[in-house]
Write a structure and sequence with these properties.
Pfam families: DSBA (PF01323), ScsC_N (PF18312). GO terms for molecular function: isomerase activity; oxidoreductase activity. Residues 15-250 form the Thioredoxin domain. With 251 residues, this protein is an alpha+beta fold. It has a domain at 79-250: Glutaredoxin (3-Layer(aba) Sandwich). It is built from ten helices and seven strands. It has helices at 31-47, 50-77, 79-83, 109-125, 140-156, 158-168, 177-186, 191-196, 201-216, 238-250, and strands at residues 3-8, 14-19, 89-92, 98-104, 128-134, 224-227, 230-233. The strands form two sheets. The protein has a five-stranded mixed beta sheet with strand order 3-5-4-6-7, with helices on both faces. Helix 4 (109-125) crosses helix 10 (238-250), helix 5 packs antiparallel against helix 6 (158-168) and helix 5 (140-156) crosses helix 9 (201-216). The protein is elongated and about 85 Å long. The termini are far apart.
């Protein structure tokens, strides 16, 4: 005798079909029973289209959670290169309870937009350690600018690097020896000494190491940030970064 039995569809719907008891195994359904099941699923979805959006929202949330956990794992594996690389400049509060790492490109418009946001965050929070990763990806001018900044750090030290870094974030001149000489002179730096080191093996290594780290972290654009154990992919305003910092501390 036919029986009414609930079936769980692939769409997550609980349906009732009039099927023989021995046919409850979906793999044993006849073509007619499968057609009936498909018709009932279709009718239910058409009557309740909102479940599609609900399913999409659940999927997106699940994927977001999986990506966040994958990013946490990537940060953990690459922690030394991210947070304790002696070749990277450290600013903000060197003793801060949270470290913010930025992968940036001087020709990136969003990096330039984020520049003031990051500066405001570091000033207002006062307890964030800031690490800059030179990550030139937008052509030869980007590479030249990073070479000039890295050479400055290696030749003239932290304060000189910060002056050059800040200047390059708003710089609109030529990315060549003449432009860099003028910029260095304006900042009171030894232009010849810095420029002579721009193509050194030490500068090559910094850029190569940062690109290799970016590949390991699946970074394909700038700006990209790491705060604590979280990857923040893309531009974020100051208040959003502050909220994340507060959440990290709270947890």
């Amino acid at each position: 005798m036919p029986m009414i039995r609930p079936l769980l569809s692939a769409a997550g719907l609980c349906l009732s079909l009039t099927l023989p008891a021995q046919a409850l195994d979906l793999e044993t359904l006849s073509e007619g029973e499968r057609a009936l099941l498909r018709d009932e699923i279709r009718a239910y979805i058409l009557d309740n289209p909102e479940i599609i959006m609900e399913a999409v929202a659940v999927l997106e949330q699940r994927q977001s959670q999986e990506q966040a956990q994958a990013d946490v794992d990537l940060v953990k594996v690459n922690a030394k290169a991210l947070f304790n690389d002696p070749a990277s400049w450290v600013g903000g509060n060197p003793e801060g309870d949270i470290t913010l790492v930025e992968f940036m490109d001087y020709r990136c418009s969003y990096c330039r937009r984020a520049f003031d946001e990051v500066a405001g965050l570091l000033e207002n929070d006062g307890n964030i350690r800031f690490v800059v990763k030179e990550f030139p990806i937008l052509g030869e001018d980007s590479v030249l600018a990073s070479r000039f900044a890295i050479a400055t750090l290696q030749v003239a030290g932290d304060e000189a690097y910060k002056s050059v870094h800040d200047a390059l974030m708003t710089y609109s001149g030529a990315m060549n020896e003449t432009g860099f000489s003028r910029l260095a002179d304006t900042l009171g730096l030894d232009a010849n000494k810095i420029i002579s080191e721009m193509n050194s093996p030490a500068v090559d290594k910094v850029i190569a190491d940062n690109h290799a780290l970016g590949r390991r972290l699946a970074i394909s654009g700038t700006p990209s940030f790491v705060m604590g154990d979280q990857m923040l992919r893309g531009y974020l305003p100051q208040d959003a970064m502050q909220q994340i910092a507060d959440e990290i501390r709270a947890n």
